Amino acid sequence: MWDVIATLLERRMAGNGSPNRVSTVNMALGLATTAGMIIAAFSTIGKALLIFGVWALLSGAIQLAVAIRRRRTVGGQWPMVISGGQSVLAGATVAATSASATSSLSTVAGYSAFGAFWFLVSVIALSIRSRREKG
């Protein structure tokens, strides 16, 4: 769900580069992850965490690259940079520890909470910037 929202926001607020290419890659990554999670649902929690971790790492890298690329033309990208960096680190950690006997789905809850927080901060920062430019 967050991928779809991020894709729609990117299309609306694209500053430069090719938003369609990034959106296509992001959508393909989301579809591949969905297929992987459906398969993992019939397997182990460790496999589901591995798929989730790889998704978080890759989608965070895409988010980080887009934010860095757009920081000069769009501005207000610091929450997106932080969120993308956090996603890369969390994804790598979740993937690396997915085979551990102590791994659990509770890690995903923490990741989701921080992701939702930074997403909200990003929307607020971009909304404030948009109002200042119009006003």
From TrEMBL:
InterPro entries: DUF308_memb. The chain crosses the membrane at residues 21-42, 48-68, 80-102, 108-128. The keyword Cytoplasm does not apply. Pfam families: DUF308. Keywords: Membrane, Transmembrane, Transmembrane helix. It comes from the Bacteria. Coiled coil: none annotated. This is Integral membrane protein. It comes from Streptomyces malaysiensis. The lineage of its organism: Bacteria, Bacillati, Actinomycetota, Actinomycetes, Kitasatosporales.
